[in-house]
Give the backbone structure.
Amino acid sequence: MAQKLEKDSDLQGRRAHCFEMAVLFLEVSIVLCSVALLTELLLFWRLSFLSIAAGIGLTAIGWFLR
């Protein structure tokens, strides 16, 4: 029983780490979009899409992690 709970706790910890990193990438993408609007540089706009993709990918990894 204790080993099962420990295994479940480890899984939840790994999931939480993935979700925390996903939130970080999504917040960075918001900042990059704001910078793109202020500077009118397309580079920041494109970087924000890469950050969004990383955030979505980490969310999917955390969601389907077993």
